[in-house]
Amino acid sequence: MVVQKFGGTSVADPDAIRRLIDIVRSARSRDGRGPAVVVSAMSGVTDALLAIAGAAGSGDQADALARADQLRVRHLAAAGDLAGAPQVLIAQINAQFDELAAVVRALAVLREVSPRTLDVIAAIGELLSSRLVSAALVQAGVPAEWVDARRAIVTNDDHTRAVPMMRETNAAIRASLQPLLDNGTVPVLGGFVGATPEGRTTTLGRGGSDYSGALIGAGLQANEIQIWTDVDGMLTADPRVVERPKLVPTLSFDEAAELAYFGAKVLHPSTILPAVERNIPVRILNSRNPSGTGTLITAEGTPQGTPLTALACKRDVTVVDVTSSRMLMAYGFLRQVFEVFEQFRTAVDVVTTSEVSVSVTVDDRRHLDAIVESLKQYADVAVEPEMALLCAVGDRLRNEPEIAARVVGVLEEVPLRMISQAASRRNITVVMRQADLPHAMRRLHEEFFA
Ligand code: ADP
Ligand code: ASP
Ligand code: MG
Fold this sequence. Notes:
By secondary structure, this protein is of the alpha/beta class. Helices cover 42% and strands 20% of the residues. The strands form 3 sheets. It has an 8-stranded mixed beta sheet with strand order 3-4-2-1-7-9-10-8, with helices on both faces. A 6-stranded antiparallel beta sheet has the order 12-13-11-14-16-15. Strand 9 (282-286) and strand 10 form a beta hairpin. The protein is globular. Aspartic acid is lined by residues 7-8, 40-41, 46, 125, 191-192, 206-210.
């Protein structure tokens, strides 16, 4: 049995959902049961919901309600097209949007959106798309049943980036999905969404439906976790930067984790972990090209003979330079610096140090001002926004130091702000001005993958 997760573009409109139905059907006839289906919100819907929350919170009720109406129309139209608009589905969609309108009116009065409320609003996209897909499958003759993701994914209360509680989640997944699978039904649930043990709606962070898919795959001990998206698999570079990157046929879990963490958006960075723990292969596939072989991610991977496996990049990164105000770097300085980031729950991606200074990159700027204020108590702090990091990944970097040298050599005309290779030695990461990123990525790609 496999778990199939479909991203936003793979459920974007009735045509996409019809392709999904074919994909589900063929998995079902191959395996004789399942699959378990996890869906994202229709593409653009989460962004639209967050914009609605933003407009409502700044008092622009009319704008928020108008945007909500557009979403209502889009979902009702899809329901009509796919499922023949059964009364229950129409009523569910309308109820969801009536509730959204009520929340919008309350926020417009309060002029404040708490993370908890933001989650209630953001979750609507997945709750609706999963209802729609479930009804469409039934209409197409596939026995399917909607499952409320809030009964399957149990998380802490860190709203907008909640962390699943593994034991509780595994138990909840088995209790809510296994009986359906056992009687030949396809369970359909929204990704991205969970709930605290008290039942408050949470979300797993942007792009989190992949993570839901992996959690469900692990909880059900699936044979494979499939991530269906709009590209043929993991590519050798970000296709929005490099023209015609190549498909990476296989990856090790470790390589995939590094690529996801350093910006390959096709996979949410947390996705690999549940798969690693149960040794379940993950496959990235294109829902517009379902006969493709995609990218297969397994414990060992299958080395392809290229010096590097793929490149990844992250934009909108901020470099923070912290220089000890004392002349010499006292021990304890690094601890003090990292405690500040910890206090504000801000992850640091790349770190380099010298005797008296440490430079780090962050991509979550929410608490940056407060972090800088705190650091200034005992250090000089400089902040440089609009930076980018470029990461070259490959298991061969571990044993062949000349590959890292070649990476840096190829980039000789690009001013590099930081260079870092960590203990895993599976990646080498360089930080530069954002404006230099496209050129740097194309140069590296040409050198290693042309
Ligand atoms: P989904 O909605 O299916 O989750 P995402 O938009 O989250 O899809 O991820 C797929 C996108 O990731 C692709 O359209 C592509 O633009 C982007 N991407 C960035 N880096 C890579 C990479 N190395 N390989 C494949 N896709 C990548
Ligand atoms: N819909 C959510 C987002 O846009 C989650 C996902 O698509 O994975 O971030
Ligand atoms: Mg995604």
